[in-house]
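Re: your question from the hallway

Yes, I did run it. Sequences:
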Amino acid sequence: MKVVGTIKEVRQQVKEWRKAGESVALVPTMGYLHEGHGSLITRAKNENDRVVVSIFVNPMQFGPGEDLESYPRDLEKDSAFCENLGADLIFHPTPEEMYPEGFCSYVDMSVLTEELCGQSRPVHFRGVCTVCSKLFHIVTPDRAYFGQKDAQQLAIIKRLVLDMSMDLQIVGCPIIREKDGLAKSSRNTYLSEEERKAALVLSKAVSLGEQLTKAGENDAKVVLDKMIKLIEAEPMAKIDYVKAVDGLTMQQTDKITDGTLFAMAVYIGKTRLIDNFSVSR
Amino acid sequence: MKVVGTIKEVRQQVKEWRKAGESVALVPTMGYLHEGHGSLITRAKNENDRVVVSIFVNPMQFGPGEDLESYPRDLEKDSAFCENLGADLIFHPTPEEMYPEGFCSYVDMSVLTEELCGQSRPVHFRGVCTVCSKLFHIVTPDRAYFGQKDAQQLAIIKRLVLDMSMDLQIVGCPIIREKDGLAKSSRNTYLSEEERKAALVLSKAVSLGEQLTKAGENDAKVVLDKMIKLIEAEPMAKIDYVKAVDGLTMQQTDKITDGTLFAMAVYIGKTRLIDNFSVSR
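Structure:
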């Protein structure tokens, strides 16, 4: 497995693979990899000849006052992790490589970006759309793999690829959880021991919501109220949002149907965590 | 030569060409082709095995009150024109093919889009960046050809390709003029006989500016003042802007150096015409 830092090196490698008729997958990450990322890399390896993992803490998707500086990084550990799972290439660019002097372009979206995390993180999805478009141009993958934990991001990237006529397939992969239910996230490392326990309210609320919708509840408000009540019972938790939206458009919905997404962002202390589930009927 | 309307047909054709190892060029146009477009197609044919001409009057780059509806169209004539010049494929999509139901993505840029035409046409370059990105994704050309008549558009597309790490070369081609100097434009058909004569002030101002800069003038204001005076002497002309900018960043400049762009937009009656020249030293 190679680790490269320049766009040119990635292109060269991918062109060699293409000449040999090999298919190429991309797993875009911000590093500090955990089993959630691992599941993406493993699936990508199963479905493609070659797997590129990009590791880039993208400044453009962090707002002022967010955790760009403190976001955890460990390239050495990440490299071993990727190699173990059979990845073929890590692309680990500097911010200067991705955003050269005078950079002033961006890719963005209305509608889907305006709800949920888009409300609390106004520049976030512009950064995500821009960096993913760039990565797609650089790697030209057949398939790119994203986790359903970032459900809104996944919906946005799928819409982006459709809207912009990009010739690749976006594959969404299930949320990977700790044994006690907490959704795996690089940001979990921010949690103190006490906060780590309190953070369980997110997955507990997800479980409760799933139970209620599986039992046939059709009114989103009924489910949301119970989820919110559960979260509010935890003194360390502060809700950013808990909402039910259409799984494609991210627009709020009152009626639960196939594809309805229940999504939440909750602060545990200073750490903002997200979790969600989709209704399938 | 084939004329196709769907993205799928373009992709299929391009994939066949790629399999045969052929290089592919794109000439993006809004149709109603003239010798300006012709020079792009001819150059593209000289430098590539295959040439795709896209003909699409892109609604997204027209503002409210602009000439989207009245913009001239003649696919039959355009097809014959392209075939004559050796083009291999015309891509002529409907707006619905390019902007499917729920379309909400866009590509845009700051800095370069904020000057010149960007001030009088605030949504224009977002439309241009979005449609060109889409066309690049659909055709995946090795090279795309743009006229220097739309100098700001050319600079923006070059910056976009650089910023977004798109793997293609943007080729700028010289302005083609009528015998009397008027820059070729599909919009020239809007002009009455009288307006057609008055429209010569644009190319006359360009000639004057070129003379002064070639003679060694270094102060942009001196050149602009004389150009403006010349245009203002024509009663049918109403200046939108006449400016000197850095040829890469489109930011206004007082000092004339290699690459300085003198650009203008002038209304002749209701028709808005543009022209420009670049200083090379």
